[in-house]
Amino acid sequence: MDLHRIAELLGVAQAYATTWAVFSFFATLLISIIALGTIPGNRKPSTGVAWLLLVLLAPWFGLVAFWTFGNSRLGRVRAERQNAAHGAIKRRFHEVDASNDLVDDPLMSTITRLAHDLGAMPIKSGNQVQLLPDYQATMDRMVAEIRGSQSYVHAEFYIAARDEMTQPFFDAMAEAAARGGDVYFLFDFLGSRRINGYKKMIAWLKQTDIHFAPMLPLSFRKRRFRRPDLRNHRKLLVVDGEAGFMGSMNLTEPGYNKPKNHKLGREWVELMCRVTGPVVSALDAVFASDWYTETAVPLDVPPPKPTAGGVLAQLLPSGPGFVAENNLRVFASLIAAAETRLSITSPYFVPDESLLYTLTTAAMRGVDVELFVSETSDQFAVGHAQASYYRSLLEAGVKIWMYPDPLILHSKHFTVDNKAAVIGSSNMDMRSFSLNYEISLIMYGSDIVEDMRTIEDAYRAISRQLTLEEWESRSAGKKYLDNVFRLTSALQ
To answer: What pTM was estimated for this model as a whole?
Structure first.
């Protein structure tokens, strides 16, 4: 090839490169201009800024990421089913007495009305609530309940694994179905699939009479209609409409079937509760809604039976189908109502601005505020994002208690003065507020608060208190990672 031909090819290549550079410049400029005018719309400022920063720094990557993860759309079919199920719940509970004036405290009474308006579930008296902090004992109690079932079993868990500890639970469901009971079983697709033995569990279920369905399964053919990381994080069990269980525990052994956890002695510490009374009907309604959303098959749920006495309780469902972020609004309202003492247990504490300001303001105005977290997080990114908030909390006067390694404090609950206690599946992080389906049980009265305080006292007895001096002494590298993952946590 002569020099003239080489020069000619170099000229063509340079022309193409110049054209591509000009195209890339104007395309990037156009993406940035469009992003500035669209991304902040109807989003929290921190979320909008985080997405804008990603798009401006890496336009093409940011555009794809935003298109994939920048909204919480459910998809048309799923949204239609869920709206129909919510409508049926509202009509069913409207048929019974839905008075929200059962709480004596005027401020708490407004919160019960808020929770009712957001989640459609009225506050009801006549409930019995037993807190269950022991992992094995809780599993045994649920198994016994299923084995004594007479008509039906509704089970729903974010993570389900058929292992040595949970095998009796699965066997009890199969036995109940074999003797003619209606057994329905839901589990989150991604949450369960990442646990060893998922395919074997599915194969085993297919050999039984259990009706089962994975929640929010991924379908690449339909991917454009739904954000892929929306998850159903609920954990609940209802037997015969008479007794229910809910809380933080997944259907797996406490080491999550991971050899690394077993080697480290790492186990998850949970808190569940067993409930009887009218609130069981609310749990059943949530399950029926999820079952219909996944399968299009309706389930009949009997209305709550009127009773008196017991614990005042109200179930609060939340998730992508609820545009108002039910749990965030109610949690923030309860925290703002605290006058003397506020105790929070959350394994993943990554609040938005409103919740952070409400919590630190409570501490600044003299409320005794304490937060229980694990000393070592089981999730690298979330752990660093959570750590980025510790300085603000400590400076405001919040006491941070570190639950000892290698245990993972996974229970999710809090108490407000001697007035209210909340337990459920919801973390205090932006994922639980916006992207996960959750359920929370709000209970009113000093007796149930005292029961919860016993659990909190046990945590405190074995935990160590984090000081501001200790936190300030961390390495520059850890502080840098904290700030980076705090920013990425806002990409919701």
So the answer is: 0.89
- What 3-state class would DSSP assign to 262? helix
- Kindly give, in sequence order, each residue whose CB lies less than 8 Å from that of residue 81, ignoring residues fewer than 6 positions away: 292, 293, 296
Reduced to 3 states (helix: H, G, I; strand: E, B; else coil), residue 371 is: strand
- Both 48 and 190 in one domain: the answer is no
Residues pairing with 464 in the sheet: 402
CATH of the domain at 408: 3.30.870.10
| Calpha distance 354→45 (Å, rounded) | 11
State how far Cα 151 lies from the chain centre. Answer: 30
| Domain boundary pick from 251, 279, 310 | 310
Using CA atoms, how far residue 299 sits from 195, 290, 310, in Å, is 29, 10, 28
User: Does 247 share its domain with 375?
Assistant: no
Q: Tell me, yes or no, whether 188 and 278 share the same domain.
A: yes
Each residue of 57-99: pLDDT tens digit?
777 677 777 767 767 777 778 878 887 877 777 777 765 555 5
CB atoms within 10 A of CB 327: 29
State both tokens at 110: 């407004």
> From start to end of 282-412, where are the E strands?
311-318, 341-345, 349-350, 368-374, 399-403, 408-409
pLDDT tens-place string over residues 155-176: 999 999 999 999 999 999 999 9
385 is in which domain, residue-wise? Answer: 326-489
Phi and psi for 72 in degrees, rounded to 5? -115, 40
Q: Which residues lie below 8 Å from residue 341, measured CB to CB, with a gap of 6+?
A: 367, 368, 369, 415, 416, 417, 418
Check residue 122 and report its DSSP letter.
P
Tokens of 41: 């719309």
What CA–CA distance (Å, rounded) separates 307 from 83?
A: 30
Contact indicator for 467, 394 with CB cutoff of 8 Å: yes
Sign of CA dihedral 158, 162, 166, 168: positive
**Same domain flag for 444 and 460:** yes
Q: Count CA within 13 A, CB hemisphere, residue 91.
A: 7
